[in-house]
């Protein structure tokens, strides 16, 4: 190969890495926004978040394999996302709400969700077995532009993730529930005084975040695999993104998700995928040492 061909090959590889980073980053952003929302409103961290990511993937797998793709992936989203919303709402009402009547309930909720994550992951192993499951691509084929080749699957995952984030932003800024969520996050006592039903907002927050991570589970499980324990890695990434962006900062979580998606892609390309998690923790520890409140958290 000539020097020019070597350079072109490197450029094409870099573009592939960037696309991979943007695709993963968009899904991470979708999930991080939901986790940040829960923390911002309740000041409690949902450790079962990764397990709900898996649940969305498993629900989609069940529907595809036992119901079929009538109507394509649209029917999967139409069935699974509202189902995940209902699961999140039921979780908050039956398990989280009773704890809010106790002292230091935020810590108790974190312990509850940690135990729930262990239960759910082991339940997946019993019900679905230890072997990995896979979802078909949302759209087959590639888009070729000159010597560049783009996967339709990556394009659709990116588009749907961004659409989900924009829809979430619209709900947050243009609906009564969304504005009430913001009010509770900014000033819980003030929200209570003006008559905002805090209990209902807490339930809505858990439901929305669970629907978002379930949606992310459907999208990302097409690129990778679903296994009983794969939610653990997603939980760690979501936590790193939330802490790196600034606890409770949705904008910080969005920035952090894309930064970490790109970092993960470049580290995987340079050193191998096994080093990706190490790089995330190095980034997090460095950030916390220099700016403990994260990128956009309040000091």
TrEMBL record:
<keyword id="KW-0472">Membrane</keyword>
<feature type="transmembrane region" description="Helical">
    <location>
        <begin position="17"/>
        <end position="40"/>
    </location>
</feature>
<dbReference type="InterPro" id="IPR052157">
    <property type="entry name" value="BCAA_transport_permease"/>
</dbReference>
<keyword id="KW-1133">Transmembrane helix</keyword>
<feature type="transmembrane region" description="Helical">
    <location>
        <begin position="47"/>
        <end position="64"/>
    </location>
</feature>
<keyword id="KW-1003">Cell membrane</keyword>
<feature type="transmembrane region" description="Helical">
    <location>
        <begin position="275"/>
        <end position="291"/>
    </location>
</feature>
<dbReference type="Pfam" id="PF02653">
    <property type="entry name" value="BPD_transp_2"/>
</dbReference>
<dbReference type="GO" id="GO:0022857">
    <property type="term" value="F:transmembrane transporter activity"/>
</dbReference>
<dbReference type="InterPro" id="IPR001851">
    <property type="entry name" value="ABC_transp_permease"/>
</dbReference>
<dbReference type="GO" id="GO:0006865">
    <property type="term" value="P:amino acid transport"/>
</dbReference>
<feature type="transmembrane region" description="Helical">
    <location>
        <begin position="70"/>
        <end position="91"/>
    </location>
</feature>
<keyword id="KW-0812">Transmembrane</keyword>
<keyword id="KW-0029">Amino-acid transport</keyword>
<dbReference type="GO" id="GO:0005886">
    <property type="term" value="C:plasma membrane"/>
</dbReference>
<keyword id="KW-0813">Transport</keyword>
<feature type="transmembrane region" description="Helical">
    <location>
        <begin position="111"/>
        <end position="130"/>
    </location>
</feature>
<feature type="transmembrane region" description="Helical">
    <location>
        <begin position="150"/>
        <end position="172"/>
    </location>
</feature>
<feature type="transmembrane region" description="Helical">
    <location>
        <begin position="201"/>
        <end position="219"/>
    </location>
</feature>
<protein>
    <submittedName>
        <fullName>Branched-chain amino acid ABC transporter permease</fullName>
    </submittedName>
</protein>
<comment type="similarity">
    <text>Belongs to the binding-protein-dependent transport system permease family. LivHM subfamily.</text>
</comment>
């Amino acid at each position: 190969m000539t020097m020019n061909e070597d350079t072109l090959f490197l450029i094409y590889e870099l573009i592939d890495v960037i696309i991979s980073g943007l695709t993963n980053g968009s899904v991470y952003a979708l999930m991080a926004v939901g986790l940040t929302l829960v923390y911002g409103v309740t000041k409690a961290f949902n450790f079962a978040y990764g397990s709900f990511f898996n649940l969305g993937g498993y629900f989609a797998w069940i529907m595809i394999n036992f119901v079929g793709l009538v109507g394509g992936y649209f029917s999967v989203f139409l069935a699974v996302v509202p189902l995940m919303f209902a699961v999140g709402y039921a979780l908050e009402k039956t398990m989280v709400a009773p704890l809010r009547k106790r002292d230091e309930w935020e810590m108790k909720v974190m312990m509850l969700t940690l135990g729930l994550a262990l239960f759910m992951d082991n339940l997946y192993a019993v019900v679905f077995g230890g072997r990995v499951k896979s979802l078909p691509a949302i759209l087959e084929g590639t888009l070729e532009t000159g010597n560049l080749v783009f996967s339709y699957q990556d394009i659709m995952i990116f588009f749907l993730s961004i659409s989900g984030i924009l829809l979430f932003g619209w709900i947050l800024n243009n609906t009564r529930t969304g504005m009430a969520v913001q009010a509770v996050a900014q000033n819980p006592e003030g929200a209570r005084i003006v008559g905002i039903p805090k209990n209902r907002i807490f339930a809505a927050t858990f439901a929305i975040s669970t629907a978002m991570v379930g949606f992310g589970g459907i999208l990302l499980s097409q690129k990778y695999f679903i296994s009983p324990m794969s939610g653990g890695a997603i939980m760690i990434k979501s936590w790193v993104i939330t802490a790196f962006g600034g606890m409770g900062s949705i904008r910080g979580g969005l920035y952090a998700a894309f930064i970490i998606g790109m970092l993960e892609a470049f580290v995987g390309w340079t050193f191998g995928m096994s080093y990706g998690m190490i790089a995330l923790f190095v980034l997090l520890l460095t950030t916390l040492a220099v700016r403990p409140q994260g990128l956009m958290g309040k000091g």
